[in-house]
Amino acid sequence: MSTLRGTPQESLRTLLALARTGADRHRIGQARYKFLTWCADADIPEVRTLATTVDRWWTEIAVFLDTGHSNAKSEGINRVIKLVARAAFGFRNATNQRLRTRCVTTRRARGHLRTAQL
């Protein structure tokens, strides 16, 4: 096995840091190759699983690297909605349950939202 330097997280972060930098496909390809090679040389099952996951999602990751856009905000809001709905389960009035969900996800509330408050 070759001498491994750094961690797979560092290699992955280096790869993802190329978003919004205008890096060309060759540079992105080199970073991807370095990450996947590091993972293949590692004799750790979790690292190989990480490499498989990144490879499986490469189309979506490549779009993020090209555009710099992700759906993280909408995914976060959906998560909060599900938490609130779970906490409000059993409300007798469905209108109140919808109102509670809507109030939690408004712009003003989002900045101060803590999941412990739900």
Quick recap:
Helix content is about 65%, strand content about 0%. It is built from 7 helices and no strands.
| Major beta-sheet overview | none
Cα separation of the termini: 49 Å
Helical/strand content category: mainly alpha
Taking all residues together, what is the mean pLDDT? 79
Helix and strand pattern: HHHHHHH
Number of strands: 0
What is the percentage of strand-forming residues? Answer: under 5%
Shape: elongated
Portion of residues in helices? Answer: 55-70%
- Helix count, per DSSP? 7
As residue ranges, the low-confidence spans are none
Rg from alpha-carbon coordinates? 20 Å
Question: Can you offer a commentary on this structure?
Answer:
The protein is mostly helical and 118 residues long. Helix content is 67%, strand content 0%. The chain is built from seven helices and no strands.
Topology overview:
Layout: H1 8-16, H2 25-41, H3 45-56, H4 58-67, H5 72-87, H6 94-104, H7 107-110
Q: Main attributes?
A:
single chain, 118 residues, mainly alpha
